[in-house]
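sorry to bug you again but im stuck and you know this stuff better than me. what follows is a protein written twice so to speak, once as letters and once as structure tokens for the fold. id like you to explain what the token line says about the fold, in plain words if possible. anything you notice is useful, everything is just below.
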Amino acid sequence: MAKIKVTIDRDGCIGDMVCVNLCPDVFEMNQDDGKSQIVAKWRTNASDLSTGLVDESLEECVKSAAESCPVSVIHFEKV
């Protein structure tokens, strides 16, 4: 099964939670800085909150989150 690489430009995140509301299996809010991060289960590196590899079955919710982000900081690609 293919994977989807998801990245968040956390510096540009405004913390509006649209991604979390649309795709909570992949995105969550960081309690320290109020910005979006990848859920620990999907992170490619435990210390990198902004990059993850998710199952292809989550592509539609990731796409919805990326398209709905008001500052366009979520990016994804099949790998």
User: Anything to note?
Assistant: Residues 3-78 form a domain with the Alpha-Beta Plaits fold (CATH 3.30.70.20). The chain has one domain: 3-78. The CA atoms of residues 26 and 39 lie 5 Å apart.
